[in-house]
Amino acid sequence: MVAVRYQTAFKLYPYEKVADQEAAAPSRHPVVIVGGGPIGMGLALDLGKKGVPCLVLDDHDGVGRGSRAICFAKRTLEICDRLGCGDPMVEKGVVWNVGRVYRDEKEVYTFNLLPEDGHKRPAFINLQQPYFEQFIVEEIRRAQAAGAPIEIRGKNCVTALTQHGDHVALEVDTPDGPYQLEADYLVACDGASSPTRAMMGLDFEGRVFEDNFLIADIKMKAEFPVERRFWFDPPFNRGETALLHKQPDDVWRLDFQLGWDIDREAELKPERISERVSAMIGEGIEFELVWTSIYTFRCCTMKDYRHDRVLFAGDAAHQVSPFGARGANGGMQDIDNLGWKLAAVVHGDADDTLLNSYHEERKYGAMENIKNSSRSADFLTPRNPAHTLFRDAVLDLVEEHDFARPLVNSGRLSMPCTYDDSSLNTLDALPNAPARSRPGSACSDAPVADGFLLAQLGAGFTVLAINAELPADLTLDGAAVTPVILTSADNPTGALQERYLGDAKSAIYLIRPDQHVVGRWADFDETLVAAAMTRALGKA
Question: Could you tell me if 538 and 353 are in contact, meaning their C-beta atoms sit under 8 angstroms apart?
Fold first, then answer.
């Protein structure tokens, strides 16, 4: 029997009995994804659009209730644009770029997360996780209708797995009883408490932060600005911190630091939560409690994200504090990285060893997120008198001294990871070019004559030529690539020059399917670019 761990907000993939359950022998699938949250569904959508047959097994039949993750970064929205589901997310979401930091009741610092123009997407949107997941699944349904080989099985719970030389054997429980199936590759996207990780006897390395935080999502109509507002030592939560920002449907996220030694049962009583909310937003403002939760957090990671034919992504692989919105956004970068590599291996365009670079690059990204997240947590919840002294000194200085402002850490917000030392990169060969577009970096968007740059990049590898020529029939390593040819006339705002040329007169960029730069040169040299392509496919 499949246990019910949570109530669903949207029933998106109800249980249906399938032929595999009565097959005489286990059916083999190229890719099985365990877990149907945003990470698992996002990977399925990416693989399906690349023509890779994939099966999602989820122990529920839809999206869980509660806002949970709400802050989705520009890079995540760009990934969703590539997957075909970015527009409804931005249309539904609450767009914000500005954050304000207060000490007591006084504003001490303001920041703008998108200080430059020329990007299609905003720095962040706030969107409840159930909507985010729903929009991905709706795009999966459209892709299925167009022939994408994606299958979703709700109320299918993996209870055991065994690795063999060329596949993984799975035991799956359903409302109609258990059955077996096999996968060439299995990707565990089954969350922080990952049953897959537990079945394999694997665990995390890291630390638990001794503090408790109360989330209260409330519905109200108030004329508060659409900004992220963060308080140190506010009058309504003395000695602690608090956070307020808006979500769609007139829902607001309130986050209160509570301390370590608390009575959880008492703090979760509706009347106690309502007292805290009223003290924050003001007496007399009517509101409705939508969802509440108390959480603690840890910053930790698995040692390895690949174990033969089993790979881990999202919270199943790593966890961070919620400060900085690095959890779901980091998970989306995981599947952005893994999708094209897994597709290349399944299609025979790359050797199995390419998948080792998934661990290499995304473990690097996770450690970067953990470092930033831990620093935020230490600033917000000082572990010792020295940390407290440092935080208080920064807050004393920040009002009058600009140098102190970068030290105010109310959550370093999620940014795309640059894989500087990746084995897939080629040595930078474009002198005096911008550092932001160096090999390993995610491509920055920019306005071009026909819209925005990222929308012109191909689903596979792309060669971007700026003020340079390309061959008419462009193939590299035996594969067709997408050519994008731009000139100064396609650069109406100067952003292309600033972000991709710098002082260079011309440039050639080889760009991966996940829109990260492989290498760059002043002019097209087929031998050099083809060698870079070979290296990017893990063949060098």
Answer: yes
**b or e along 45-62 (b: 16 or more beta carbons within 10 Å of the residue's beta carbon)?**
bbbbbbebebbbbbbbbb
Residue type, 428: D
Q: List, for residues 368-419, the tens digit of each pLDDT value.
A: 888 877 777 777 777 678 878 888 888 888 777 877 777 775 555 557 899 9
How many other CB atoms sit within 10 Å of the CB of residue 76? 28
Q: Is the separation of the CB atoms in 33 and 44 below 8 Å?
A: yes
User: 319 — phi, psi (to 5°)?
Assistant: -140, 145
Q: Decide: helix, strand or coil at residue 40.
A: helix
**Contact assessment for residue 169 and residue 182, using Cβ atoms and an 8 Å cutoff:** yes
Say if strands 27-34 and 54-57 run parallel, antiparallel, or are unpaired: parallel
| Helix axes 356-380 and 327-346, enclosed angle (nearest 10) | 180
pTM over 0.85: yes
Whether 186 and 198 have beta carbons less than 8 Å apart is answered as no
- Residue in 114, 20, 25, 22 with CA at minimum distance from that of residue 73: 114
Q: Supply angle C-alpha 145, 150, 154, rounded to 5.
A: 105
Which of 84, 187, 186 minimizes the C-alpha distance to 137? 84
CB 317, CB 204: distance < 8 Å: no
The residue type at 516? H
Structure confidence at residue 491 (pLDDT): 86
Residue-level length of the chain: 540
Query: If pLDDT is split at 50, 70 and 90, which confidence band does 168 have?
Result: very high
521 exposure class (CB count in 10 Å sphere: 0-12, 13-18, 19+):
buried
pLDDT in tens, 494-527: 999 999 999 999 999 999 999 999 999 999 999 9
Q: What is the dihedral of CA 494, 495, 499, 503, to 10 degrees?
A: 10
